[in-house]
Amino acid sequence: MLRLTKKADYGLMAVKLLAEHWLRQPDEANRALSAKDIADAYHIPPQLLAKILQTLARTGILVSHAGIYGGYSLARNPESITAFEIIRAIDGPLFITSCITVNGNCDLVGTCTIKEPLSKVNDSIREVLTKIRMIDMCEPPVGTAHGHEKTELVTLDTHSH
Amino acid sequence: MLRLTKKADYGLMAVKLLAEHWLRQPDEANRALSAKDIADAYHIPPQLLAKILQTLARTGILVSHAGIYGGYSLARNPESITAFEIIRAIDGPLFITSCITVNGNCDLVGTCTIKEPLSKVNDSIREVLTKIRMIDMCEPPVGTAHGHEKTELVTLDTHSH
DNA sequence: GCTCCTACGACCACTCTAGTCCTATAATCA
DNA sequence: TGATTATAGGACTAGAGTGGTCGTAGGAGC
Ligand code: SF4
Ligand code: SF4
Q1: How many domains are there within chain A?
Q2: Does strand D come within 7 Å of the CB of A149?
Q3: Could you tell me if residue A130 is inside a domain?
């Protein structure tokens, strides 16, 4: 539940890489990265990523450039691109429950008593995602450093018994 | 994406109704509501709701009582029950991405550069859900009242037709 | 013209969701 | 005791959604 799709996940990774590339390459000429480049960098399926980037280009977050030495680059500077935009562009505008954004296929909308509280939850999550700009993901060690490096929660315990 | 399952949705509605029933009925005797009662109140599939309530009882949020005049009631007072518990009990502990809580079937965990930012998003959402107690959902017109009464949505219409 | 790239629709395997059905069991009352 | 009412839980299914592939069309530079 409440899980992000992998497409949105891939999209965030791609835009993050493009944002870093943008910051590294001030001249516009070399700003583009092809879908295959990004896919290779993260070992994600190239054709799938291509479609994701196409979607992002269609919504105006990226600009595409066909032909040799073509590819994708950011349409705006990475300060103005939020994680919310990217997720919304890829996964659509739908949110927590069926009834909130769309008028909903849920026929309980008359008797339901929790759609207003959940609507607030929805707003909170959207706000959290909107606050995250791509430039924030590019520079991890800025402020709010409370020691405790590494944050190694995963530990990857694949103890194959 | 980021959508709550309907089971969790139903679970929240049920616990909310039980919480209101708890507040109305100070004596412990009449606190129980059967699965069918709740299902009828909201027109949701009774057998599906039954399984949800069983799950909630198994995790200790509700207590069940078999037999005639049996049913479910809250295991604790509605101040200490959060929306997060209910959602987690029904939909499991999994969250935003595959890699955060579980060790993850995602094999990009080595190259991925966004799992730490997303982990913070995950924490934010969990915090939002943890802050919502059931008693908060029961009393809408407390502060932040901007007119718009009505609040009488449940009305417990067990009118046996 | 060739090659590299985007654009897009069709397609598929797989998983998850929502819901049903069935049987077993526990508690209450007559 | 037995009937009734309720929970407990497993098996199962149709449908939707996800993750991913393939093939083709078309634009851009050499
Ligand atoms: S109306 Fe209620 S039950 Fe239906 S989707 Fe909205 S919150 Fe969920
Ligand atoms: S490792 Fe990265 S790509 Fe994989 S699930 Fe986590 S955030 Fe997503």
Answers
A1: 1
A2: no
A3: yes
